[in-house]
Design goal:
binds zinc ion, mainly alpha
Amino acid sequence: MIQSTILPTQCWCGIQFAIPEELKRRHDEDGYAIYCPLGHSCVRKESEAQKLRKELDGTKLALSTSELEKAYYRRKLERCEKKKTHKKK
Ligand SMILES: [Zn+2]
């Protein structure tokens, strides 16, 4: 089970990537350095609206993650059920 929320963030070069909420919080509050996949240092430069939109996107992402998890466990359960029926025969 994934506990931490993953928040999408964007580098000045245009690359979008996601970082854990805790890391994002440190970045916002303490200026903790984060780097994009290309190695650029990400400088925080966003308005309150952008921030809120990112939070919303993060929530959406978290929701879709739990949907994926559900689908994964459903498939796993189905496989187990199939195995059981197979054994009975
Ligand atoms: Zn970059």
